Amino acid sequence: MMIKKIVVLYIAFVCSFTPCRGLSFAEQFAQIGYVEIADRLQEAEAFDALYKHFDVLITFLQANPKWAQKVNNAKERFIRSQDKNYYATDFFGFYDESKIRARSQISFYYSTHFHDFIKARYPELIQLSALVNFLESCRAIQQPYGEVFQKAADELGRGAMFSSAYEQVPILFKVVKYLSTYTPIKPHYDGTAFSLLLDSTDNQSLLLSAYKSVFTVDDFSVPTRMFPHSMLLIPGTLLAEFSIYPTPHVVMQSDNVRYATIAFAMRPYFILQKYLFSELPSFKT
Ligand SMILES: [Fe+2]
């Protein structure tokens, strides 16, 4: 049974990296904005458990602001370390925007280096089961996606973009909870090489569009999936030098709380170049 499942997963994984209807990844990004990858490589139960751990962490940190401050201190120290440059971003740790009406979301940006930094420098934080269970859950889930990003870069003929002394793709792993008070303002581009939309409790809430020179609200729609438990790979802003332009996307309002998990492929030691992308339309009603 287990062997059969591994074979099915392998076939789904390999098939997803062959050109879809004769289209390369670059052509799919240009025409529809995303590449669908047949299997998300993790069981649904793993994401359910992750969201439960996240809720426990949120409850704990909201009730104990001094510990939330300590997690934030760890992040501030981490972004002054050498390892931060490997990710070329300042986004790490816990962001509670539940009280900011226009945002109404809570997120955590995980990376293995940030996790190891906490373990090495903040022994008091790794005593907190609410934090440790969540971090360990993140570490286990994000593990297979480096290979997906490397294959995607290879498919684009840009396999060297993730090369670094660390010999792994810098993955920033985001878990986000949108509250029912959340309302969309406008779409955005991700500041990543690729964003891999791994899982969501409501796929219908995410709209996207292929890149265009002029956008209207009507350009945005729910992506069509051929597989029920697939992942979607979209380009971010860090591939423009290769003439691959970012896919803008927006989360719409929903009656229910929505959880989502995204793996971001960053570019090691990347120095951001100025590039002006097309204006995005307002979704504010
Ligand atoms: Fe995004």
Write the layout of secondary structure elements.
Blueprint: H1 2-16, H2 25-31, E1 35-37, H3 44-63, H4 65-78, H5 82-87, E2 93-97, E3 105-110, H6 112-121, H7 129-142, H8 145-155, E4 171-178, E5 194-200, E6 206-208, E7 231-235, E8 249-251, E9 258-265
Antiparallel strand pairs: 1-7, 2-3, 3-4, 4-9, 5-7, 5-9, 6-8
Commentary on this structure:
The protein has one domain: Jelly Rolls (Sandwich). Helix 3 packs antiparallel against helix 7 (129-142). The strands form two sheets. A seven-stranded antiparallel β-sheet has the order 1-7-5-9-4-3-2. A two-stranded antiparallel ribbon has the order 6-8. It is globular and about 50 Å long. The protein is an alpha+beta fold. The protein is 34% helix and 17% strand. It starts with a helix and ends in a 20-residue tail after the last strand. It binds fe (ii) ion. Residues 188, 190, 249 line the site of fe (ii) ion.
Most strands sheet: 7 strands, antiparallel
Radius of gyration: 19 Å
Number of strands: 9
| Major β-sheet strand ordering | 1-7-5-9-4-3-2
Order of helices and strands: HHEHHHEEHHHEEEEEE
Using brief descriptors, characterize the structure shown.
285 residues; alpha+beta; Jelly Rolls; seven-stranded antiparallel β-sheet; 34% helix; disordered N terminus; binds fe (ii) ion
